[in-house]
Design a protein that fits this description.
Shape: globular
Number of domains: 2
Radius of gyration: 21 Å
Strand content: 25-35%
Largest sheet: 5 strands, mixed
Length: 272
């Protein structure tokens, strides 16, 4: 695996020269102008020459750093389970005005007004028919991290035979859509979080964790014998947290073999 850093900073030729001198490539803004700057981007691998110095420079420039992990094909294929992160987003849950979709799709009786935790989906999501799929098999809606959608034909061909179910989806008027389904994420199982610490809401006491961004995803305590399930832990930020979606090796390898796009597979650490 490789731990990859993405740096974003306010552009200047002098700053770009400093990073290039460390061996990093720099992507300048599309239209850099001295009077307004612009945002430039650079990348580095953890532990590579110049990486530590680049991190220090970005901090001194008040830039932003994000981290992710790139796994080898063998690390993914050999994992007993993989976290399943939908990365292609299009459209919004309906009705989107004043976030009324929450009342439409969820039981909000136990929802915390401060952190947003406690809502339970009780009805189908409503969507517009103008979702942009591109070449992606998987899709999530903006504002909703905890639901995964597929075109019915793709689900029927690739995931239904593996035992993954589907939930109905409706149009904006409440009529059932034949061409789109929401993936049934199955039961809930706890993860082994080890020394990772979550953030506890001061109002409701519920705990959430930052999304895992480096190394193997946490292992599963007593994983259920099902093709897909959810973590009992929640990941994200206030009003936008979700259970991690986790799939078996059979499902992960089927997704890769078919070249299905729109998701990233994150290998879970071995149990124990």
């Amino acid at each position: 695996m490789k731990i990859k850093y993405r740096f974003a900073f306010t552009w200047s030729e002098a700053r770009a020269s400093q990073l290039r001198a460390l061996g990093l490539k720099v992507q300048p803004p599309a239209d850099p102008r001295p009077e307004v700057g612009g945002i430039a981007v650079s990348f580095a691998l953890e532990g590579a020459p110049g990486w530590s110095e680049a991190c220090s420079l970005i901090r001194s420039w008040n830039g932003a750093t994000s981290v992710t992990t790139e796994f080898t094909a063998a690390e993914i294929s050999e994992a007993a389970h993989c976290a399943f992160q939908v990365v292609h987003a299009s459209g919004y849950p309906q009705p989107e005005r004043d976030f009324l979709y929450l009342e439409q799709a969820y039981d909000l009786s136990a929802r915390c007004p401060k952190c947003g935790e406690g809502a339970v989906q009780m009805a189908p999501f409503r969507i517009k028919k103008t979702l942009k799929w591109g070449r992606n098999a998987f899709l999530k809606l903006n504002w909703v991290e905890e639901a995964c959608f597929m075109q019915t034909s793709v689900w029927s061909e690739h995931l239904r035979p593996l035992g993954i179910g589907a939930l109905p989806v409706e149009d904006t008027k409440g009529s059932l859509l034949d061409e789109v389904v929401q993936i049934d994420l199955g039961p809930v199982a706890p993860l082994c979080m080890g020394e990772l610490e979550g953030v506890r809401c001061e109002k409701c006491g519920r705990e959430r964790y930052q999304w895992h961004d480096r190394g193997f995803f946490p292992s599963i305590k007593n994983p259920p014998d099902v093709p897909i399930f959810r973590s009992s832990q929640r990941f994200g930020v206030e009003h936008q947290s979700a259970n991690a979606m986790i799939v078996s090796a059979t499902v992960a390898n089927a997704i890769r073999a078919a070249g299905l796009r729109g998701v990233e597979l994150w290998p879970c650490a071995p149990a124990g």
